[in-house]
Amino acid sequence: MTSLSFRTNMMYHRIMLIRLMVKFVGLFMLAACSLSFTHAADKTLSSLIDKKIEKHLPEIIRIRRFLHMNPELGNREFETSKLVASKLLSQGLEVKSGIAKTGVIGILQGDQAGFSIGFRADMDALPIQENSQTPYASLNPGVMHACGHDIHTSIALGTAMVLSSLRDHINGSIKFIFQPAEEGPPAGEEGGASLMIKEGVLADPDIKAIFGLHVWPEIDVGQVRFSSGPVLASADSFEISLHGKSSHGARPHEGVDAIFLSSQIIVAIHSTMSRTVDPMDPAVVSIGKIQGGIRSNIIADEVHLAGTVRTLTEANRTRIQNLIENITRGFTQPFGASYDFSYRRGSPPVYNHPGLAEVMRPTLEQVLGKANVLNLPPQMVAEDFSEFCQKIPGFYFMLGVKNPSQKSMPPLHSPDFNPDERSIAVGIKIVSHLLLDCLAHRNSFKSEIY
Ligand SMILES: [Zn+2]
Ligand SMILES: [Zn+2]
Fold this sequence. Notes:
Blueprint: H1 2-36, H2 43-69, H3 78-90, E1 94-99, E2 103-109, E3 112-122, H4 149-164, E4 171-179, H5 193-198, E5 207-220, E6 224-226, E7 229-232, E8 234-243, H6 258-276, E9 283-292, E10 302-311, H7 314-335, E11 338-344, E12 350-352, H8 354-368, E13 373-375, H9 386-389, E14 394-402, H10 422-440
Parallel strand pairs: 3-4, 3-5, 5-14, 6-13
Antiparallel strand pairs: 1-2, 2-4, 6-14, 7-12, 8-10, 8-11, 9-10
Bound molecules: zinc ion (2 copies).
């Protein structure tokens, strides 16, 4: 009896223990599932997106080639802008044109309630003569899509075409932002992301997060690079004019040698950088222009220097601006020279919002496979997408455009730059999933996003 009741008791406890374990494992699984859920994991929707891409791809490739053949410089993207607006209208989007000169916005309203997010594509080309032998090489002499903005524009249009027939899967709305003058507006004009923001691109409806990408020639089609936090540098520029006194080259003590001073200043800037800037917080100063002097045996009284400053943090930006001016003052005063110094703040660093990056990483991994989502070490190039990241959470990634069978390809801004067009379909797929998942993840975001 005792032993029977003991056995019964033991069995009872075992059953309870197993039940508890099942319950615990179930809860854990549920939590894990809700954390890793992405639309990208929804096979039906995923194959629907693939089919839509397949359907629209021939037209998108035609559009991309048209854009490539007809590149337009910053703030002059008149035909590009018209093409974008008419394509968006034909897909039933609400379209606004003429924002920040030639910018276009297309709003895609989903069937489900939710918030609004944005996707930004830049449209401008560069003043470069194309070398490529492709049948769709630039027809506009001296102007070329050498930074791949034709690919960006095509991906944004393609995504709008794909998602406009999937409104029932959209919780909220998507604002497609086609931006002029990313490479900088013509001298004396405003333009680019900052002007779009000034003209209200982030409002009506207010967008809670913004996505962007850039073609990246260092990785294969089918791969992306991204990371959380700072990814691209700020881009500031400075100019120094040194005013000395001319004299005979054989009698330098009677003049103030501006060329000698400029050489001291250049060496001092570079050497002081290595002793005052935290090596774990990268920064670059490059002096790309120096002009001065008129003859080999005349001491130069004027020298003009111009350079660029790239940093990943605001602290370094301010530190380096002060450092350059202090060095200039420190060298000119003892020699009786004077100087003019001007420092122009360009776009700030591009910053991937850590909360948004954490939520979106599984989507990239689902779409491309974990092995194709590569880490992006901070780059010292710049991009005015950063202006949006200053206002709202941003997510920016690099899209592989290298043909995998080639070892390397010409870099961005090269007259031989020729991205693999298969990257367009990959880009549309990634962006479609990122946007849908971001809207579906409404409850996963911390309050700063939602
Ligand atoms: Zn560029
Ligand atoms: Zn670019």
